[in-house]
Structures are given as structure tokens and as C-alpha cells.
Specification:
With about 170 residues, the chain is an all-alpha fold. The protein has one domain. About 65% of the residues lie in helices and about 0% in strands. It contains four helices and no strands.
Amino acid sequence: MTGITRAPGERHDGGGARRMSASGAWLGRLLLVFAVAVLVNYPWELAQSPLYAGLDDLRAVLWHCFRAALGDGVLMLLIFASGALVFRQGDWFVRPRARGYLVMLAAGLAIGIGVEWAGVHVAQRWAYTEHMPRVPGIEVGIVPVVQMLILPPLIFRIVSTMQRKPTSKKE
């Protein structure tokens, strides 16, 4: 016996409850980042849809943009994971400071260019209209790359605000 007193019938969990609580917090945080990312990216996807070829039917636009927003949610999880690896903590985005914003921007830029390059030039999953401004030399759309630079800080701010515990008023 280790000298730890337990109530009758209480079992030792070996720290498992803490691990379950921590893993539950991580899962909750990931789901919240994903959900907020989808909700924030969907209007952006709708707004930029005229810059993509083949999106003439409203139903096709709504469906395509929804699928793209789901993909953007996954990309946000990659940005989240980048920060978690760099800072070794899951709440790195709550008070990101300059280094946190640098991670968001660097990961967003790499992901934005990489996904657009692969989607347009490698897999040929989508094409641009003549109205899409492009990054010279690599011919990927500027608007979707800017999306991955502007929206991640906003999404992380929304998530961190939603996760704050309400302060109790003193009466």
C-alpha cells in the first residue's frame, strides 16, 4: 500500500482520469477549431467562387464551397498542429504573440500555396477564371493564398474567446 487513502470501493486509476480529461480537452479544442474554421471559411469560399471556372449553377456553387470549407477546416487543423509542435502546447494560439502569428502566417502561406499548386497544376481539380489574380511565377491564385493568411488568426481568436471561462462577478 502506498499510504494513499481511498474511499471504500474507490479504485486507483493510475492517472487515467487525468489523461482522459486532457485528451478530451484536446479533442474538444480540435473540434471547435474545425467547426469555427468551416463556418468562417464558407462565406469566403462563396465570395471567391466567381474566380473559379465551372461554377455557374447555384447548387453547384453552394455544394463546392461547402466541401472547400470542410477542407479549409482540415487545413486549419494542420496550422493548429504546426503551432502545437513548435510551442509544445495545445493552447499556443490563446496568446500567440509575434512568434505565434509568425507560425500562423508561415504555415498558412505554405499550406495555401501548396494546396493551390497541387489542386491546379498537379491534380487539376479546379481551374481559375481570367479574373483570378495570380502569384507570378507559380501561377496560383492570390485570393485563396490570402485566405490562409487572414482567416487563421481570426479563427484562433474566435476559438480562444469561446474557450475562455466566464469570470464570476463578485457581489
